[in-house]
């Protein structure tokens, strides 16, 4: 609609309101009407032919909104065109300076990092694997430990080892971290014994290697999500008030699958992505009053090559923690050492190995190349070889097995990553 029509409508209303007299309806001439019938909507026609002030204001507001949307579309088009290359160029030129600043910050935090002597640390999933090695690293720094896992008998031996390695005091407690009451119990016991909490280390995790479309028993789904997500959130929720008092830190055991999804790990990847995003949001909410360190690992010793758990026919699923795998040496110890060192330096992220970050560039700028690469790597494996939990298929002995990143000592058939073997455990 022509601008002259709009101004005439406004002028008519002002004259009418000023004189207090009744004016005849405004009828624009034919040449003043919009050239295309689709432009003259019912609302615009009502505003032009009716001298109602409210309808005219509403019409003008919609016109301004439409103009704003068009302006925003144009702005987004320009930003999409110029921002990515400009950002890459800026990052390329500033990369040396950023590396130098990061190195200086790392050196300063290493020299003046947090002294854990006589500090209090809660470690969930501490019965073996990553959790066990983290307990030993804190023991070397003479911290007070609260070790939490489902299997108390495993914790006793680890507690003795931690004492011999230098831990001032070690407490153990059998608890299920997916239950809020259990979390309140071990946090309250820690406060009663030590009076504070400085670090909360969540290492609980559970993976799988089955294809999503093969599952027929969906009871597996909430178990995986409960352990990988709520098993970290509940201890954080309960311990957070005490971490505020000590300006403490939360350490999370995440995984590269949180941003680099892989086949046969759909639920695990989804849970880890939710976990990382939860703590990234929490980091902003806490405003550095409580630090958060997100540790991201690739494929290490206690992962798919070893961890399993079993679902018996007609029995409730019994999940075994990732730390229940007995692992010593190699990448697990190195990853645990990096986690504790990074947490004491106040690092926001710990990555092992760090070369996985290269895939981020491909995922953002060349996702098809990354997809093709994964397909080439996976295609030689041939037909699917998965664990059979929830698929309605049975293994030798009639026990369906669910592969995962966690296990506990037990006797029976185990499914190892990508293939089936028979293995006896004490």
TrEMBL record:
Which residues lie in coiled coils? none
Q: How does it sit in the membrane?
A: Single-pass type II membrane protein
Q: Which UniProt keywords apply?
A: NADP, Oxidoreductase, Signal-anchor, Transmembrane
Task: Provide the family line.
Answer: Belongs to the short-chain dehydrogenases/reductases (SDR) family.
Instruction: Look up the domain of life of the source.
Output: Eukaryota
Protein name (Swiss-Prot/TrEMBL): 11-beta-hydroxysteroid dehydrogenase-like 5
User: Where is it mostly found?
Assistant: membrane
Gene Ontology CC annotations of this record: cytosol; membrane
- Subcellular localization, as worded in the UniProt entry: Membrane
């Amino acid at each position: 609609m022509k601008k002259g029509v709009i101004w005439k409508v406004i002028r008519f209303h002002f004259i009418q309101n000023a004189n207090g007299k009744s004016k005849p309806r405004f009828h624009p001439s034919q040449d003043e009407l919009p050239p295309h019938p689709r432009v003259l909507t019912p609302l615009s026609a009502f505003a032009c032919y009716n001298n109602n002030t409210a309808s005219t204001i509403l019409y003008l507001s919609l016109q301004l909104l439409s103009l704003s949307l068009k302006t925003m579309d144009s702005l987004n088009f320009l930003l999409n065109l110029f921002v990515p290359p400009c950002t890459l160029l800026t990052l390329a030129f500033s990369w040396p300076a950023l590396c130098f600043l990061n190195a200086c910050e790392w050196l300063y935090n290493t020299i003046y990092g947090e002294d854990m002597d006589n500090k209090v640390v809660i470690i969930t999933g501490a019965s073996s694997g990553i959790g066990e090695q983290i307990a030993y690293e804190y023991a070397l720094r003479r911290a007070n430990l609260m070790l939490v896992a489902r299997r108390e008998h495993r914790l006793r031996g680890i507690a003795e080892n931690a004492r011999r390695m230098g831990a001032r005091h070690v407490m153990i407690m059998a608890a299920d971290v997916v239950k809020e009451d259990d979390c309140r119990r071990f946090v309250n016991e820690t406060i009663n014994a030590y009076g504070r909490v400085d670090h909360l280390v969540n290492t609980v995790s559970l993976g799988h290697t089955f294809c999503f479309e093969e599952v027929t028993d969906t009871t597996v789904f909430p178990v995986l999500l409960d352990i990988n997500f709520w098993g970290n959130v509940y201890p954080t929720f309960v311990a957070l008030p005490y971490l505020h008092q000590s300006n403490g830190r939360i350490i999370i055991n995440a995984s590269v699958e949180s941003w680099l999804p892989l086949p046969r790990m759909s639920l695990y990847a989804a849970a880890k992505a939710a976990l990382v995003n939860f703590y990234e949001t929490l980091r902003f909410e806490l405003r550095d009053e409580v630090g958060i360190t997100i540790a991201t690992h690739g494929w290490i010793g206690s992962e798919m090559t070893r961890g399993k758990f079993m679902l018996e026919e007609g029995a409730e699923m019994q999940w075994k923690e990732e730390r229940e795998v007995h692992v010593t040496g190699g990448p697990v110890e190195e990853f645990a050492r990096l986690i504790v060192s990074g947490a004491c330096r106040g690092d926001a992220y710990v990555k092992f190995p760090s070369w996985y970050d290269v895939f981020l560039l491909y995922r953002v700028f060349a996702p098809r190349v990354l997809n093709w690469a994964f397909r080439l790597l996976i295609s030689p494996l041939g037909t699917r070889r998965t664990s059979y939990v929830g698929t309605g298929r049975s293994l030798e002995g009639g026990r369906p097995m669910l592969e995962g990143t966690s296990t506990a000592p037990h006797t029976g058939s185990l499914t190892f990553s990508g293939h089936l073997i028979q293995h006896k455990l004490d």
